[in-house]
Amino acid sequence: AGESKRLSAEAKALNEIPADTYPITIHAQSGDIGASLDLAAEVVGQPALALTTPDGRLSGQAMAGKSSAFKLIVSNSGSAPARNVALSASAPTGWNVTLEPDAISELAPQQQMEVTANVQPAEKSLNGDYVVSFSARGDDVSSQSVDMRITLTTSTLWGITGVGLIA
């Protein structure tokens, strides 16, 4: 009688559980006497961004000096919304890349959004393979990036003109 004991209780949320407030009741009983304590656990969740293409292919073709559109998918596989997601691209010198949209104010858990990347290689680029990197970063979430291989072709008009001049 008159004695007290300290108890510890641990609750662990599953990874898939959505962000919310969950009630927890702690019961203590000794013989005919018992006590209960109502608590609440707040699961805040964590966003998880991923960046890919609709078909999973990370390659495409473009022509020098002409704009080509590529579709990207930004998804949030986490348990909390991804907020203030900024999209950016890094391309070879002289290339112009625009993203539509280039920012997403909020992406809900288990949702995805399509982004169009308009890639315009430099007019004087040579035939070959080039890499354009795309990245997505937001508040409270690590940055995700993906590299896309772009096979560049040039107009065959100059080749035909060259053959004509040689002939």
Question: How would you portray this structure in words?
Answer:
By secondary structure, this protein is mainly beta. Helix content is about 5%, strand content about 55%. It contains one helix and eleven strands; from the N terminus they run E-E-E-E-E-E-E-E-E-E-E-H. The strands form three sheets. The protein has a five-stranded mixed β-sheet with strand order 4-11-10-6-8, with no helix packed on it.
**What is the assembly state of the chains in this entry?**
single chain
**Beta strand %:** over 45%
Sheet of most strands: 5 strands, mixed
Radius of gyration: 27 Å
Q: Largest sheet, order of strands side by side?
A: 4-11-10-6-8
The low-pLDDT segments are none
How far do the termini sit from each other? Answer: 112 Å
Helix segment tally: 1
Q: What percentage of residues falls in helices of 4 or more residues?
A: under 10%
SS elements, strand count: 11
Structural class: mainly beta
> What is the global morphology?
rod-shaped
Please tell me the overall pLDDT: 89
Order of helices and strands: EEEEEEEEEEEH
Task: Give the tags.
167 residues; mainly beta; five-stranded mixed sheet; four-stranded antiparallel sheet; 1 helix; 6% helix; 56% strand; rod-shaped
In short:
With 167 residues, this protein is mainly β.
